[in-house]
Amino acid sequence: MSKKRGNGEGTLQHRADGRWSVTFFAGYQDNGKPLRKTAYGKTQQEAIEKGRKLKDQLDKGIIIDRRKPYDEWADEWYKGFKGSVSESTYEGYAYTLSLTKKLLGRKFLYSVKAIDIETALKQLIAQGYSASQVSKTRAMSNQIFRKAEANGMIERNPVQLTERTRMPRKASSKDSFSVTEVALLYQHLPQNRTGHAIRLCLACGLRPQECSGWSRNISPRTARCSISGRR
Predict the structure, then answer these.
(1) Which of the residues 91, 108, 174, 210 has an alpha carbon 20 to 30 A from that of 8?
(2) Distances in Å between the alpha carbon of 169 and those of 55, 124, 131, 166, 173?
(3) CA 42 to CA 46: how far, in whole Å?
(4) Long-range pairs for 85-88 at CB < 8 Å and ≥24 separation?
């Protein structure tokens, strides 16, 4: 049985499963049908309290999409980001994006907490990723969640609540790739401008700074020919 409450207080209902719910009108969907949001509680009082919080969010324009997974939203953010940076920068972001999706994957946006972000970054460190890459991954996650917050999909950006991730001290000697590792890189690097630039650095012993000018002014086809020695 449902019970219509006072104006703006929603509709209170005792459900067949024993829970209580409070439902509010939240506008209209794209197809013109009414959009409703519901808060649930084990008791009537709990449902009413959660309903008040939901109503406050609706009044502030915060409508949380609890069904949107992180990886889907990350892809949407990445597509929208394309026009604001150069092509080479956009391609370079793809690798960092894949890391964030690998770590947070199908977690729902609303459910990701600061501890989840910290755990994910620690996993990167344990897997041997550089301090630079860990920092880039955190920065990108921050942008993705900040955009979700700005669009009213989450209440607060969890990245902003994380503590600084400390990198382990490394030995002074420099490591180098083995022949096997180089072969794997050649195989798995993306077939785009960024991937070909990295292949050229590996093949010729170039520093990233030396290769950056080349990668902006050469086509992917020329890159493949240069690396393979064909003309």
Answers:
(1) 108
(2) 49, 15, 11, 9, 12
(3) 7
(4) 87/193, 88/193, 88/194, 88/215, 88/216
175-to-124, 131, 188 alpha-carbon distances in Å: 18, 15, 20
* Inter-CA distances, 164 with 75, 88, 117, 123, 159, Å: 26, 29, 11, 14, 10
Bigger pLDDT: 228 or 12? Answer: 12
Question: What pairs with residue 24 in β-bridges?
Answer: 37
pTM value is 0.53
Q: Where are the alpha helices (DSSP H) in the chain?
A: 44-59, 70-81, 87-104, 114-126, 131-150, 179-188, 193-204, 208-217, 220-228
Tokens encoding 205: 């012993």
Q: Which of 184, 195, 189, 183 is nearest to 220 (CA)?
A: 195
